[in-house]
Amino acid sequence: MSLRYQLIIYWSDDDQTFLVEVPELPGCMADGQTYEAAVVNAQQIIQKWIETAEELGRPVPEPRGRLFYA
Known about the structure:
By secondary structure, the protein is an alpha+beta fold. It contains 1 helix and 3 strands. The protein has one helix at residues 35-55, and strands at 8-12, 17-21, 29-32. Strands 1-2-3 form a 3-stranded antiparallel β-sheet, with helices on one face. Strand 2 (17-21) and strand 3 form a beta hairpin. 11% of the residues are buried.
């Protein structure tokens, strides 16, 4: 399975860290003290999210790439 999910990365003043959301995987988020660390952590969390979904017999959405909202 490809790990090419869209990542939304932003700085949190409250947490003093970069936060990463993966909108195609509900509840999938990561953080990191640097932008690069946040992306690496997100990749690891995506893999864990997928493994957990498969263990529970839940569907894993295919990456759609860039999302467009109405």
